[in-house]
Amino acid sequence: MNTATTLARHGSALVNFMGHFAHGGLLTAGLFAIVIMAANVLEGRGTGQHAVLIAAHAAETARHEAVAMSENALDVDLGLPGVEPESVGRPVLSSEMARVKSYVARRYRVSAVALEPLLAEAETAGAKYGLDPLLLVAMIAIESSFNPFAESQVGAQGLMQVIPRFHQDKIGEGAGEDALFDPRLNIRVGAQVLKEGLKRYGTLQSALQYYGGALQDPAAGYANKVMSMKARLKSAAGPRKTA
Fold first, then answer.
1. CA distance 65 to 103
2. What is the largest CA-CA distance in the chain?
């Protein structure tokens, strides 16, 4: 009963999340989130047959709702000559980020297709705010292990574990309480928080410590973890191609 209640409680957030990814191949990102949510709910509560059936039923129900939402939300002409339906709206990654995608998918056992819109948004936000996109991806890895529904005991939400009450100005007026579970918005807000730290404190290490709420840590543990992860991502990305 507790498992069923928990799954039901997350239902509306899940359907709202699917709305953001209703276009073409991006729907897969939402389906990937179902798997994460079900796994998190069942963790530590046993793997009995009843619990597994509840999780499977919740996932299937959400899948049908998401498909219906994708059909109704957009008027997409899938009959265009020479255009495959799954290619409509598919994000385009740099060659380096495409290699990072493969590394992250293996390391964190997540869907490579589901990662595409997240990594594409990291590249977009990085360009907009003058930040290395690999740094943003490293922060996502450390903060949430690529779980868009992650939520901490202190209320930090989403991929980059942003605390809404501290950054409402970046989220935007009128945003709902579940706004930061939109992965793209979460990444944009997280990038702005890091940029704010750079302006305030002048160095990347201090900005990262500010982001992690650990400015007083002389060992800079959070910054070191992020930079270590970034180094692994950079190695996976391989050398940059020059024109």
1. 31
2. 60
Q: Is 131 left (phi over 0), alpha (psi -120 to 50) or beta?
A: beta
Domain total in the chain: 2
CA distance 242 to 236: 17
Q: Contact at 8 Å (CB) between 33 and 148?
A: yes
For the stretch 8-53, pLDDT in tens is 444 444 544 444 444 433 444 455 555 455 444 444 444 444 444 4
- Phi, psi of 93, deg, nearest 5: -100, 150
User: Cα–Cα distance between 30 and 215 in angstroms, integer?
Assistant: 35
Residues 101 and 74 in one domain: no
Q: Where are the beta strands (DSSP E) in the chain?
A: none
The C-alpha atoms of residue 186 and residue 198 are separated, in whole angstroms, by 19
Residue 243 domain-assigned (yes or no): no
- Does the pTM surpass 0.85? The reply is no
Distance CA(170)–CA(148), nearest Å, equals 18
> Which residue, 87, 119, 152, sits at the end of a domain?
87
The span from the CA of 90 to the CA of 26, in Å, is 7
For the chain, list residues with pLDDT below 70. Answer: 1-89, 241-243
